[in-house]
Write a structure and sequence with these properties.
It is a single chain. The chain is 41% helix and 22% strand. It is an alpha/beta fold. Strands 1, 2, 3, 4, 5 and 6 form a six-stranded parallel beta sheet that branches. It has six helices and six strands. The protein has a single domain, classed as 3-Layer(aba) Sandwich (Rossmann fold). The chain binds flavin mononucleotide.
Length: 142
Amino acid sequence: MKKILVAYWSGTGNTEMMAKQVAKGAEDAGAEVSCKTISETSVDMVKEASALAFGCPAMGAEVLEENEMEPFIAGLSQAELGGKPTGLFGSYDWGDGQWMRDWAERMQGLGAALDGEGIITQLAPSAESLGQCYELGKRLAG
Ligand SMILES: Cc1cc2nc3c(=O)[nH]c(=O)nc-3n(C[C@H](O)[C@H](O)[C@H](O)COP(=O)(O)O)c2cc1C
């Protein structure tokens, strides 16, 4: 059975709603799913998963949240990510998605097999973006 890790940071719940849909899609496709905040996530959990989804909103000035998500991502390497199917998602507000373009490029540089360009949604996720998150979960489990 596929082991899917969905790990996210969310300050006001928008990215968390997306995470729950990714997890639901993967569960409905029959995978074993852990859906955790990034503070509950260890590098070993990343290593053990067969596919990954990370969620984080745009924070700072078009960067990842700096206290928990940024250090966690900075601690990952080819050893955990190499060739692994990986989806990214997150909410933003006034920007144009630059944080996600930078994050996707960075994860590719670390060897992750990225699923698309990352799912982004302005503030509270629309039904359409929640559907995209659900489909991401299904693909990661497939
Ligand atoms: C401190 C702070 C910094 C932010 N920086 C950005 C930014 O650079 N670009 C942007 O588009 N939105 C920015 N936002 C807006 C958040 O990305 C947006 O409110 C998002 O929906 C929060 O997601 P969450 O509910 O998962 O925490 C920022 C919000 C906060 C609180």
